[in-house]
Design brief:
Elements (H helix, E strand, L loop, with lengths): L2 H11 L9 H10 L6 H11 L11 E6 L5 H15 L10 E7 L2 H18 L5 E4 L3 E4 L3 E7 L9 E8 L14 H8 L1 H4 L5 E6 L7 H9 L7 E6 L1 H4 L5 H13 L1 H7 L8 E3 L3 H6 L16 E6 L11 E9 L2 E10 L5 H14 L4 E4 L4 H11 L4 E4 L4 H13 L3 E2 L4 H9 L1 E4 L5 E4 L9 H19 L6 H7 L12 E4 L5 E3 L5 E3 L5
Parallel strand pairs: 1-7, 1-8, 2-5, 2-6, 6-7, 10-13, 12-15, 13-14
Antiparallel strand pairs: 3-4, 4-5, 9-16, 10-11, 11-12, 16-17, 18-19, 19-20
Helix pairs in contact: 1-4, 2-3, 4-5, 10-11, 13-14, 15-17, 16-17
Length: 515
């Protein structure tokens, strides 16, 4: 039975593809398996693949870049059933072939798996099931469908008849993880070589103009004869519908966030996103092999924290960055992270202890739960002042650029921080302006990067006006006298807060050192 016969027969009769909205997917299926297309189907094929010559045999890989609500999950589930039960592979006796459904996590992969379960029931194929758990189904044909997180270490050594890589645009990339999408695919492909008719299906809505999905589209879209068939269509193109509720839904999504709508539903690469930092910029200021620096007597040290509560699903870490100005360089001396779950009070006590090691009397932090942490620090970190930094995280990231490009900073050799810095994205807002943050991925974080950027901005503020190598006692004494020079031309004024200085330019500023 060909896939088209399966599509027009059992799949349509059971109600899986009963509506006319699946006509474009029918052409997609015919193209995947090299079935002959008529004139109208060839036009559809060319429109969404950029190719002029349809495949004459089954392709090795499908890269379906289709908008959300476009039917990707339902379609690939039907192919999983087809290759498991209608056209199962012929393998050696005792060898179990697998259909592997991969995603960032098992919950995401579970969506396609639930479609497979539903389709088995709708087709009346329960008698072909010989084993069923919440994460796998084993069929009497010698094929098992199972879900796994996209981990290069957990996909090797299997005979794979089909792989579904779900929402691959949200998988980790080469700069932000030791388990990037590229390595997962590299681990998968050898397991498919010995299985005749094996098929890899990567399905996703598009995101930024970087990463494996974008690179594959650039390399294979419109290329006749390429083993990778790239099919790209907007939601309303791939599954056209005149249902008023569906059209109203799309209209509301577009009105809410036009930039996101064009990507998630219109299948367009986001032009408002770009990588914020480059590998070259980070590596140029990273001191290889330097993991931590201890206290340097006679030099003022600074602390910047990105604190968190330590509870909740996929909660943020709490982070602390310690640094100093040394020989004209802004040097990060230490990086600490408290991974959730953790107790906030215990974390604050740890911060207090670390700051004491570096003779630090003030920790500066972002705005997160400022009132709560101020109270915790007052009670459990006596002698350590808690101050909220006036700047935003985005402004701190922007301030980091000239410091990196001029190479006046020194980073510790910290792989996780490096990954977070390189994964930062610059997003343009509809109303103007920009934000800089981690990717919109449930597993993405920038806690270390936030503390790092805040620290370097803090160090740079101090370095503008103060000679760093002066004893704490001398500085404290010098501040008793109005007009005392700080070593770089700034004069102590005092003011109502007792920490105001005037720069040579006339600019008034508060002492960022917390003395």
């Amino acid at each position: 039975m060909t896939f088209t016969e399966f599509f027009d027969g059992p799949l349509t009769k059971c109600g899986w593809f009963a509506e006319d909205t699946w006509s474009v997917w029918r052409v997609t299926g015919k193209a995947i398996f090299g079935e002959k297309l008529n004139k109208a189907e060839r036009e559809i094929f060319t429109r969404f693949t950029g190719r002029t010559m349809p495949p004459t045999s089954q392709v090795k890989e499908l890269w379906a870049i289709v908008g959300r609500r476009g039917g990707k999950g339902s379609f690939v589930a039907s192919i999983c059933i087809y290759l498991s039960l209608i056209r199962p592979p012929v393998l050696k006796r005792g060898v179990l072939a697998r259909v592997l459904v991969l995603a960032v996590d098992k919950d995401q992969a579970g969506e396609v798996f639930s479609y497979v379960e539903s389709l088995v029931e709708m087709l009346g194929y329960e008698d072909k099931v010989i084993g069923h758990t919440k994460e796998s189904i084993e069929f009497s044909t010698g094929v098992e469908v199972l879900i796994k997180p996209a981990d290069k270490r957990r996909v090797r050594g299997r005979s794979l008849v089909t792989v579904v890589a779900d929402e691959v645009a949200s998988w980790w990339d080469d700069t932000s993880s030791s388990n990037p999408a590229r390595e997962v695919f590299r681990a998968l492909r050898p397991s498919m070589l010995g299985v005749k008719g094996a098929l890899l299906m990567a399905i996703s809505s598009p995101y930024s103009r970087s990463g494996l999905l974008y690179e594959t589209c650039q390399a294979a879209w419109g290329k006749d004869g390429d083993r990778r068939l790239v099919w790209r269509a907007a939601t309303w193109e791939q599954r056209p519908s005149d249902d008023p509720d569906f059209l109203q839904f799309l209209a509301e999504e577009e009105a809410d966030d036009p930039l996101s709508y064009r990507s998630e539903y219109g299948a367009q690469w986001r032009s408002d996103l770009e990588s914020f930092l480059t590998v070259e910029a980070i590596d140029a200021v990273t001191i290889t092999g330097r993991n931590m620096l201890g206290y340097l007597p006679g030099v003022k040290h600074y602390a910047f924290g990105d604190f968190a509560g330590g509870v909740g699903t996929n909660a943020d870490s709490a982070t602390l960055a310690i640094g100093r100005v040394e020989n004209g360089k802004l040097v990060r001396a230490r990086m600490e992270e408290w991974k959730p779950p953790f107790d906030a009070i215990a974390m604050v006590k740890d911060v207090h202890s670390i700051c004491q090691e570096y003779h630090i009397r003030e920790v500066v932090a972002d705005h997160f739960s400022a009132g709560t942490f101020d109270a915790i620090f007052k009670e459990h970190a006596k002698g350590l002042k808690y101050t909220v930094h006036e700047s935003t995280t985005t402004k701190n990231y922007v301030g980091l650029i000239p410091l990196l490009s001029s190479r006046v900073v020194e980073l510790l050799d910290h792989a996780k921080l490096r990954g977070q810095l390189l994964s930062l994205e610059r997003r343009t807002k509809d109303a103007g302006g920009e934000t800089i943050s981690h990717p919109k991925n449930p597993q993405a974080h920038d806690d270390l990067a936030t503390a790092c950027a805040g620290l370097f901005v803090l160090l740079n503020e101090a370095n503008k006006h103060f000679d760093p190598i002066v004893s704490h006692y001398t500085r404290t004494t010098a501040r008793q006298i109005s007009g005392t020079d700080t070593g770089k031309g700034a004069e102590f004024i005092g003011g109502t807060t007792g920490d105001v200085f005037r720069a040579p330019s006339g600019e008034l500023f508060r002492d960022p050192r917390g003395l």
